[in-house]
Design brief:
Number of helices: 5
Strand content: 15-25%
Strand order of the largest sheet: 2-1-3-4-5
Number of strands: 5
Shape: globular
Distance between the termini: 75 Å
Largest sheet: 5 strands, parallel
Structural class: alpha/beta
Radius of gyration: 24 Å
Order of helices and strands: HEHEHEHEEH
Length: 169
C-alpha cells in the first residue's frame, strides 16, 4: 500500500515539474516567445510637481492619469514629487529645482505654489519644457493647460507632443 502511495506521489511530482518546465521555457506566451514582465521605457522623463496632497489631490489626479496615458503611448517615464509644507512659491521652488537637477525633460506643475515656482524657474532653464495646469499663462518654454473636465486628455496629448518632438531632435 505504501509503495502505491509513493508511486502516485512521485508521479504527481513529476507531472507538476514537467508542466512547470514546459511553461517556464516557453514563458507562458504560447508562441515560444517569453512574456514581457516589465515595460521598456525610453530615456524621456516627465515629472509632476504637486501640492502636499500628491497625485491623489483633486487637481493632480487627472494630470497624473493623463501622464500615465501618455506614458503608455510613448514609453516615457512618469514620476511625481509632492511639495511638503505650505503651498507657496518659495517653498515649491526647491522641489522644482530638484526635478530639473534630476534631468526631467518635461516638468508639469499643478497647484498654485508649484505652478508659480515653475513659471519663475522656466526662464533660467531654457532647455527644459514645462506645463502648468490650472493656473498660469504660456511663456517661451511653458505651456498652460486649463483645469477642466478634459484635463486628462489635454495633458496626455501635450505630453505625447513633447515626447514626439524630443525624439525628433
Amino acid at each position: 500500500m505504501r509503495r502505491k502511495l509513493w508511486a502516485w506521489g512521485g508521479g504527481a511530482v513529476a507531472a507538476v515539474a514537467g508542466a512547470v518546465a514546459v511553461l517556464g521555457v516557453s514563458g507562458g506566451g504560447g508562441d515560444g516567445n517569453p512574456t514581457p514582465r516589465a515595460r521598456q521605457y525610453t530615456s524621456f522623463a516627465a515629472c509632476l510637481l504637486t501640492d502636499a496632497n500628491g497625485i491623489t489631490g483633486a487637481q493632480a489626479a487627472p494630470v497624473w492619469a493623463g501622464m500615465q496615458d501618455a506614458s503608455l503611448a510613448t514609453h516615457a517615464k512618469a514620476s511625481y514629487l509632492a511639495v511638503a509644507g505650505p503651498e507657496t512659491e518659495a517653498n515649491a521652488q526647491a522641489y522644482a529645482n530638484t526635478l530639473i537637477q534630476q534631468r526631467c525633460d518635461l516638468v508639469l506643475a499643478v497647484g498654485k505654489g508649484p505652478a508659480s515656482a515653475v513659471r519663475k524657474l522656466a526662464p533660467s532653464s531654457p532647455e527644459s519644457r514645462f506645463i502648468t495646469v490650472g493656473s498660469g499663462s504660456t511663456l517661451h518654454n511653458v505651456r498652460f493647460i486649463a483645469a477642466t473636465s478634459k484635463t486628462r486628455t489635454a495633458v496626455a496629448r501635450a505630453m505625447e507632443a513633447v515626447v514626439d518632438a524630443a525624439q525628433k531632435e
